[in-house]
């Protein structure tokens, strides 16, 4: 493999580093009261947009490898595109194709799974997020697995649905539960078959932890799915309705774990001889439960008797550690990322975020690869996230991320850096508009401090986002107005990502006009001294016909560093 990066003879390279700043979940919204980004007090962003080159980028749908432009982007595919400089078919698209062609069911893993269940008289268990959000999973893929399992002669099948309310409306769980129950009933009525919902719970409290932020979430799911230990109900619908009656305003993602019982016994505990499929295609919230099923050395919680099962994921969730060991659909082969090119050329890099998004500036940025390419030239810094509801501390760890990055800028510790402010996304997912506004204001405050550090280091920054979220905090009806609850008149929050574009802002202090000065307060020195006599003006950003997406940022960044991007990267947006 040729890892060389060719230098540009006429490049306008600054002495300091290039820093990519990802404002997670802060897209370009409509500007009305649903848009927490526009409603927030953002003097730094306002100044940047008024005085620096910037363009809107596509961050959803086909621009990030998803099946259609009706599919919202997410942090994982967004950071894949940012780091790879190209667009790869992503989880939903890969799984849909594997089901449509039959490749999933003709694969070795599915065949071995079915054989194991038959030979050991075991049940098949399907665990995963139940919705049509198409970010972690899709209900149609679950239904397809159920159909094929029935066709392959599986007599006992149990679904353990994790309730969404995050990538779909916040209290829509019963819609998906009812559809699932109807689908299962087609086979439940068949003689000798048992096809039922067995356990479940809200995704943010049951099973779907990520980045080892809170292993008790996985433990709670393990106890419900495996041991049948959670509050018992006659059905999933009864569980959801009861939880809502008991806690007014609770949304689906935070509903407690439950089990379905009959005659005082759980209907579908996972036991020796069973088969288990975790049917999420996205990896970040699937890794820990996979480790619980597969790893012998497991210190994170007391599992009790670990059942001897045939376990598989929908996809391989971690390509370096091969988690899980068996999976149904091959993941996208993302190689030759920007990070690897820089590492092979001994260019120092810095990546930083808090726990909630640390994997995004490392694992996903590097093409679903864990660990550094070369630890001698790469520093990855994780700031531990708080374990509290995000709306209670919407500032999260933005200040700590800023402090750490400013320290590296002062030390001249890197040539290329990337950081992620998680606030707009994680707080946006709560549906709390007031908290989302505070989250955006926190990022803006920190951005002012950060860019002053970039100026002092004689560097350049590219400020962008990976998708929208906080820019659309209310649900809309078919007319474009806000949806309201029929009983309370309350505007219904939107907890999912948006389909809005995101900004790409080029902050290059050398090229700013002498008259441009940031507002008083934090960031007031962003513009620096007058530019007369300071050399050539910087390049400008320009969109090609049809627009551009997140994948164009890699070549743009390399261009700013005076390097030619590989030929198959999406083109740079710089124009001299």
User: What's the domain count?
Assistant: 2
**CATH classification, class level of the largest domain:** Alpha Beta
Number of beta strands: 19
Count of alpha/pi helices: 17
The fraction of residues in strands falls at: 15-25%
Termini Cα gap: 31 Å
Q: Report helical residue fraction.
A: 25-40%
- The backbone outline, from C-alpha atoms, is globular
Describe the sheet with the most strands.
10 strands, mixed
The whole-angstrom Rg is 24 Å
Question: What can you see in these coordinates?
Answer:
The chain has about 575 residues and is of the alpha/beta class. The chain folds into two domains: about 20-90 and about 335-575, Alkaline Phosphatase, subunit A (3-Layer(aba) Sandwich); about 90-330, 2,3-Bisphosphoglycerate-independent phosphoglycerate mutase, substrate-binding domain. About 30% of the residues lie in helices and about 15% in strands. The chain contains 17 helices and 19 strands. The chain has helices at about 35-40, 45-50, 75-85, 90-100, 105, 110-120, 140-150, 175-190, 215-225, 235-245, 285-295, 340-345, 355-365, 400-410, 425-430, 435-455, 550-560; strands at about 20-25, 55, 125-130, 155-165, 195, 200, 230-235, 260, 265, 275-280, 310-315, 325-330, 350-355, 380-385, 415-420, 460-465, 500-505, 540, 575. Strands 3, 4, 5, 6, 7, 8, 9, 10, 11 and 12 form a ten-stranded mixed beta sheet that branches. It has a seven-stranded mixed beta sheet with strand order 2-17-16-1-15-13-14, with helices on both faces. The model is unreliable at about 530-535 (pLDDT under 50).
